[in-house]
C-alpha cells in the first residue's frame, strides 16, 4: 500500500462554528471533513506549508505559522484497505467570516460542534479525529490506528506533557 501524508485544518467562524467540506472526491467521498490535503512531497513541503497552502486554495483564508496550532497526528494503517495515512491536525487561530465558494473538492458549510456527530463523517473520524480535536487545548496528541482486519485498533502514542513541578 502507498503511504500518504496529509494535513487537516479546523477553521471556525466568529460564532464558533466549524467549517467542513462535503467531499466530492475520494478518499471520503460524500462525507464531511475539515479542509486539508496531501503534502507535496516532491517539493519537500512541510506540514505547516501544506496546511497554509491547502487552507488558501480551498477556502481563500491566508494563514501564517503563528495562526496555526499543531495539536496532533493520526497514523492510519490500511485505511479503506487502500493506503496508509499520516495526518497532521491543525487548529486555525484565525477565524473566517464567510462561507467559501464551492470547489472541485466539494461544498462548504459551518456546523456547531455538537451537530458534527450526526453528520455523514468518515467512520474512523468518530474515534480518531474528533475526540482529539475536543482535547486540543490539553496539548499534543499522537494516535495510531490499524484499520485493516475489520475492527479498528487504536493506540495512543503521544499524550500532552504534564507539568510535574
The CATH homologous superfamily corresponds to Nucleoside Triphosphate Pyrophosphohydrolase
Overall pLDDT metric: 93
Rg over CA atoms: 15 Å
Tell me the name of the CATH class: Alpha Beta
Which spans of ≥5 residues are poorly predicted at pLDDT below 50?
none
- The helix tally amounts to 4
Number of domains: 1
Proper CATH architecture: Alpha-Beta Complex
Strand order in the sheet with the most strands: 4-1-6-5-8-9
Determine the fraction of residues in helical runs and give it as a percent range: 10-25%
How many strands?
9
Structural class: alpha+beta
Shape summary: globular
**CA(first)-CA(last) distance:** 45 Å
Characterize the largest beta sheet: strand count, sense, and whether it forms a barrel: 6 strands, mixed
Listing every helix as H and every strand as E from the N terminus to the C terminus, the arrangement reads: EEEEHEEEHHHEE
Strand content: 35-45%
CATH topology grouping:
Nucleoside Triphosphate Pyrophosphohydrolase
In brief:
The chain is of the alpha+beta class and 165 residues long. Helix content is 16%, strand content 36%.
Amino acid at each position: 500500500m502507498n503511504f500518504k501524508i496529509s494535513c487537516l485544518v479546523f477553521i471556525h467562524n466568529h460564532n464558533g462554528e466549524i467549517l467542513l467540506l462535503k467531499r466530492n472526491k475520494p478518499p471520503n467521498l460524500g462525507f464531511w471533513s475539515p479542509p486539508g490535503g496531501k503534502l507535496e512531497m516532491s517539493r519537500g513541503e512541510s506540514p505547516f506549508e501544506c496546511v497554509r497552502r491547502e487552507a488558501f486554495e480551498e477556502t481563500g483564508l491566508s494563514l501564517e505559522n503563528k495562526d496555526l496550532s499543531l495539536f496532533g497526528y493520526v497514523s492510519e494503517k490500511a485505511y479503506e484497505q487502500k493506503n496508509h495515512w499520516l495526518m497532521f491536525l491543525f487548529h486555525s487561530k484565525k477565524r473566517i467570516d464567510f462561507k467559501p465558494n464551492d470547489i472541485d473538492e466539494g461544498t462548504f458549510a459551518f456546523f456547531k460542534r455538537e451537530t458534527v456527530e450526526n453528520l455523514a463523517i468518515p467512520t474512523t473520524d468518530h474515534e480518531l479525529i474528533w475526540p482529539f480535536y475536543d482535547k486540543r487545548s490539553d496539548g499534543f496528541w499522537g494516535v495510531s490506528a490499524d484499520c485493516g482486519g475489520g475492527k479498528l485498533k487504536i493506540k495512543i502514542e503521544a499524550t500532552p506533557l504534564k507539568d510535574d513541578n
